[in-house]
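Known limitations

Structure tokens in this collection are predictions and should be treated as such. Users comparing against experimental data should check residue numbering before alignment. To illustrate the layout, the record for Response regulator is reproduced below. The input appears on top and the generated tokens appear beneath it.
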Amino acid sequence: MIRVLVAEDQSAVRAGLVLILGSAPDIKVVGEAADGEQAVALARELRPDLVLMDVQMPRLDGVSATRQVVAERLADVLVLTTFDLDEYVFGALRAGASGFLLKNTEARELLEAVRTLARGEGLIAPAVTRRLIAEFAAKPAREPGADPAVLDRLTRREREVLACLGEGLSNAGIAERLDMAEATVKTHVSRLLGKLELRSRVQAAVLAQELGI
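Generated tokens:
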């Protein structure tokens, strides 16, 4: 059972999300939050597997809430956004969100996105993700850029996997590209995240773009 906390300030939208998620036999909504502060508090209390997080909320925005949830390792975060690739989305990526979802996503795709993250796949809708990551990497950073020396921590194979993440490939896609078992890909992804001190595949993908690999 995948335990989900829904954080969305618009009650009608939140109710719709809860209804959709509740229709799946393998997903359980364990809590609802109407703002970012409540989202963080409930994540601490309920320890869900996933927080479905809107980016624009009162009291504490979704980006700041995501940063706290990720920093405390309370849950993975799936960010809800419009297709406008604005600073909210970029900030969510830097904050460690595991993936993102468009607000106009069909119910079936919402459920599959939740299941995808639960399987450890951090990149939702690869074609959209590649555009998002590319535009994010092209924007001037407000902090020092990534140091290429961090790649020295990785093996040759791990660098190849990191490059594939930068293209928005799923585990299955990486396995096909590099001719290896999907389980082996998962191991490489887990190891490189640990070596690079990253929380999510999305952060790894952004790093790959910033380093140009």
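For this record: The two ends are 37 Å apart (CA to CA). Strands lie at 2-7, 27-33, 50-54, 76-81, 99-102. Please report discrepancies through the issue tracker.
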